[in-house]
Amino acid sequence: xxxxxxxxxxxxxxxxxxxxxxxxxxxxxxxxxxxxxxxxxxxxxxxxxxxxxxxxxxxxxxxxxxxxxxxxxxxxxxxxxxxxxxxxxxxxxxxxxxxxxxxxxxxxxxxxxxxxxxxxxxxxxxxxxxxxxxxxxxxxxxxxxxxxxxxxxxxxxxxxxxxxxxxxxxxxxxxxxxxxxxxxxxxxxxxxxxxxxxxxxxxxxxxxxxxxxxxxxxxxxxxxxxxxxxxxxxxxxxxxxxxxxxxxxxxxxxxxxxxxxxxxxxxxxxxxxxxxxxxxxxxxxxxxxxx
Length: 291
Ligand code: DHB
Ligand code: FE
Hints:
Layout: E1 3-10, H1 14-21, H2 31-47, E2 51-56, E3 71-74, E4 78-79, E5 94-95, H3 98-110, E6 116-118, H4 125-135, E7 144-150, H5 160-175, E8 182-188, H6 205-217, H7 219-222, H8 227-234, H9 242-249, E9 256-266, E10 269-277, H10 279-290
Parallel strand pairs: 1-8, 2-7, 2-8, 3-6
Antiparallel strand pairs: 1-10, 3-7, 4-5, 9-10
The structure holds 3,4-dihydroxybenzoic acid and fe (iii) ion.
Fe (iii) ion (FE) binds at residues 12, 59, 126, 189, 237, 240.
């Protein structure tokens, strides 16, 4: 049986990818951010998952305003890196898992989530920056990735509650996949940020902290935050945080926070990172370290 062992919440701010690609990680502006991700990178290197489900949003690169699916799953063998205007990021192409992705689609659609099937797509910073932050800069990515794109770029985005329930259905779908593989699910984007308009640069640290706390203390309370509340409280693009609720829904009850990092600013965004292990995986790790 496949199992989800943990969830990662992380911002996907494109300037972070550019800082790595241009050798700026040691500069005073960036060094504290990359230092804050070191423990998460170590955790990932230690745990070595087989598959990553990357819940992210496309920023009008793979999809344009002609077609915007609410929930789309990538079923391709490989995903080329999108050119977002400055040339594609110099990172390896992303290897998919078409068989398992197709299984997820089948299970989710039969569970009444209307998933768009995507057999060909490029992936942008929403997916590649989290890979860089957690896996560093290897010659080839050490995991297979199933992209799950959520529309948060055009109104209406799905509610947090819908996203949380999708996460629960993903847990069920993963557990009905026969192969013995460990899966880590990412929720990306956020935290508070607004990149244009009169309120550009808005950061609401209290909102972000309450959100991080709620992921383990009371995720159901977070599902009651209305989409408009994310925008009002934490900036237009804070709506990306609904994707963290897909991740959280997939972890089940009793999940444990094991690492958290929060940093302002990166570009003009509030950057957050959290690692949450499922109850079973956490118990297994605790037993192993006690032995
Ligand atoms: C920016 C873009 C994003 O997609 C995001 O999540 C955060 C910041 C930006 O352009 O700065
Ligand atoms: Fe984004």
